[in-house]
Amino acid sequence: MKAGIVGLPNVGKSTLFNCLSNAKAQSANFPFCTIEPNIGVVNVPDKRLEKLEELVNPERVVPATVEIVDIAGLVKGASKGEGLGNQFLGNIRETDAILHVLRCFDNDNIVHVDGSVNPIRDKETIDMELQLKDLESVEKKLDKVKRAAKTGNKEAQKEEAVLNALKQGLEAGTSVRAIELSTEDRAEYVKPMQLITDKPVMYVCNVDESAATTGNDYVEQVRAAVAHENAEVIFLAVGTEADITELETYEERQMFLEDLGLTEPGSAKLIRGAYRLLNLETYFTAGVKEVRAWTIPVGATAPQAAGVIHTDFEKGFIRAEVISYDDYIKYGSEAKVKEAGRMRVEGKEYVVKDGDIMHFRFNV
Fold first, then answer.
1. Residue 189 DSSP one-character state
2. If DSSP codes are grouped into helix, strand and coil, which group holds residue 92?
């Protein structure tokens, strides 16, 4: 599962990517300096992992990770191949969620591709290009389905109605994720098409240092503009985040954050947001050798969670021994949780909860 960072050229995408992954994508004050999509595997900040480390004192700690892709800046006309259009659209299609970076700061020294700062216009430019590409996909599919529908095929007629609704919505400038359709129709007809504007999105407002704690008018404009989309909006000062990552020690970074009035880097908020956007959650294994965060889709069953460690665990699953995170912290160790009768034994139907501490019994 990966999230793609998108935006117009020069809005701070590559600088943000560098902050997140410390993989130094070329970051420069001109468009298209990121030509190949850069991929970074980013640790997901999780205070629960730190607490477990304190209690268990393991030999090593392994956090959950999320994959972030930095995609070249898109320009007007991308849907027709302008700039790096086709490549951009191919790269974004391969991601599972979108982190849409918007420039929400004034700075005469950093050129704007359209000559002035206007995050709503920038958002609409990208939305329109992505919608046009989706419209092309929908129209192609509609041509095929119409022929089958004319023969009286009831299934094709149903699909034709859904595709027509998508076509009308996209022509009116509505992204697929905001078009009203039933859950069943979405699952059956829309999901398999992998339309770009159906992907979940989070808007990342890049502000200057003075707005790092409170946001600014541009951020409020973005919130108002996307209110109907059911999308998260966060703001962070990407330039300042870059300065923080350059500092050598954890103590120096904390002092810098305190001076700004922040409790943690904005990038931590963004990574957790990307994790949620991808519909992922975490369970833990905790032993003296290793305390580890494992990534699973929300709604995974105990055998599926076991399969993330090794496919044999899923195939030969017998049962899971489960401790809730709160109980583990309250009692301080696995032995004390057992003594208190708070360890549960769960079977194949158990749906894992975020933060569960698990131990699997299996037989191969």
1. I
2. helix
Tokens of 231: 């999308």
What is the rounded radius of gyration, in angstroms, for the C-alpha atoms of the chain? 23
**Which three-class secondary structure state does DSSP give residue 51?**
helix
- CA–CA gap between residue 308 and residue 104 (Å, rounded): 40
Q: What's the mean pLDDT in 301-316?
A: 95
Using the structure block, give the residue that is written with the tokens 């919608």. Answer: 131
DSSP output for 281-312: EEEEEE-SSEEEEEEEETT-BHHHHHHHH-HH
Residue 209 CB partners (closer than 8 Å, separation 6+):
237, 239, 240, 260
pLDDT the model gives residue 341: 96
Tokens describing residue 101: 């970076």
- Tell the residue number behind the tokens 């086709």, with chain if given: 86
Nearest to 193 by CA among 137, 155, 249: 137
- Specify whether the backbone of 316 is left (phi greater than 0), alpha (psi in -120 to 50) or beta: alpha
Torsion of CA 64, 209, 101, 178, to 10 degrees: 90
Q: Which residue has the tokens 């972030």?
A: 68
Cβ neighbourhood burial of 172 (10 Å; 0-12, 13-18, 19+): exposed
* pLDDT tens by residue, 216-267: 999 999 999 998 887 899 999 999 988 888 887 888 888 988 998 888 888 8
Structure tokens at 235: 């703001």
pTM of the model: 0.83
Query: With b meaning 16 or more CB within 10 Å and e meaning fewer, what string describes 282-311?
Result: bbbbbeeeebbbbbbeeebbbbbbbbeeee
Decide if pLDDT at 326 tops 80: yes
| SS3 assignment, position 323 | strand
Measured CA to CA, the distance from residue 155 to residue 137 in angstroms comes to: 20
Q: Find where tokens 């999509």 sit.
A: 37
